[in-house]
Amino acid sequence: MRRTAIAALALGALVVTGCAGDPDNGGDPTSAGPIVVAIPGDIDNFDPHTNQQIIFEYSIRELVFSSLVSFDVDLNLEPDLATYEVNEDATEFTFELNPDAVFHDGTPVNADAVIESLERAGSAEDSIWSGRLADVASYEAPDEDTVVITLNSPDASFLSGLASIAIMAPSSFDDATSTPVGSGPFTFTSWAANTEIVLDRFADYYGDAGASEQIVLRPTTDEQVALNNLYSGDIDIIASVTSSAAEQVDTGRAQLVEPASSNRLSLIEYNSSGVLSDPLVRQALAHALDKEAIRDIAYGGGGSPAWSPLPENSWAFSEQEGYEYDLDRARELLDEAGVEDLSFTLDILSGYPEAEQIARVWQSSLAEIGVTLTPNVTEMSVWLDAYVSRDYDAIWNAFNVSVDPHSYFDIIMNPHLNDDYQNQEVSDLVAESIATPDEAERAEIYAQLQKILVDELPVMVVQSTPIYSVAATDVEDYSVNPLSWPILRDAVATN
């Protein structure tokens, strides 16, 4: 089965972990009571090796589990369970574990347990991390606090990629979907379907204690209901809201929380072996995409139009000219491709009005050049089946590009390269990009990749998207990182 790569806004991206800072509650972590958080959907799988929903990542993965390394709120790499050393060609990674780390079941986080967890992540059925760990030649434990990972070939992205992989208690492997056991700052206490998930602060956590004694997660799909519940005091934080909801926030009764920048890209992924197989046709469709109108209508003027598949704050970003909104040029390209009466479907995940607005704006422009776009809004299971099987003409998606640019190529592009968009030059450059330790040389390779992908458009970037969260006025030490992850472990409600 192909490794699933889901990245649909608040429901599904496979991205690197964020990490929290120190709690600031007068130096006494026991002084802060529960904090209640509205999340945009329920979670029914608590196995961090098989669940890649964004809501799972920030509300369970980040709080219940630890990794060998992690990222702070500004996405700087730092030790988590271990300090680390990397050899010159990025083939050997040595980790010295924190001897104070224990799992929630009381067992130690030692080298054997870490290796068992990584081996499970690399080989378990339906693991989302098997590809990332596929080039591991060996795991070794020189002593109980040391793990050495050796790769078959150099991989400059490997350390960053480990930040996403949770270290699980081996005792929990069989029951991980319902009873997760990690070593993070909060323990999993209970789940009531579509009602709430309760996490309690872990007294024996090896790092800085969680700021609140308890975090209660409440699935709330209706944003207006969530806002009303926040105003009434029933909840403290709304983890994420759309641009339209952000415009409605009463800043006298709540605070709008945004990251300093956004790594989230709105995408149109094409099936390059189907009706849209000709790059000239995809270029024509790009010329018919009115990105300024989309930014205003779908994103309330937030974010910025983009063509490169890497965010502007990435060290590997290379500005791409892209395609100006030009319907005459779009017609010329369709004529050059010999295409008439083109019709295609755009699959959209339900619950994302911005995607439907993108479709409407694009649909109107395409109609002027004789192209018929039919939006197909579906529930998650249907959307996911279509995505994994490539049973679509075009599909809307969104992806949070991690600190290392390889995350985009690993998660979004590689499935295409192995299926509908088989481009040996791109595949070779992707392989070269991670085999090159020098960052400046890697940036040159990524510049080539960005140009090719914008020229051929197997995936079309729409824009970087704004990220919004809402908190009650009495919530302190709460932030959101550029991957759109709320940093819940630091947040406290003072009243």
TrEMBL record:
Domain of life: Bacteria
One GO term of the biological process aspect: peptide transport
Record-linked InterPro entries: Peptide/Ni-bd (IPR030678), SBP_5 (IPR039424), SBP_5_dom (IPR000914)
Stored Pfam families: SBP_bac_5
Keywords assigned by UniProt, alphabetized: Signal, Transport
Gene Ontology CC terms, in alphabetical order: ATP-binding cassette (ABC) transporter complex; periplasmic space
Leader sequence residues: 1-20
Coiled-coil intervals: none
GO MF annotations in UniProt: peptide transmembrane transporter activity
Domain Solute-binding protein family: 77-410
Transmembrane segments: none
Family label: Belongs to the bacterial solute-binding protein 5 family.
Protein name (database record): ABC transporter substrate-binding protein
Organism field: Leucobacter chromiisoli
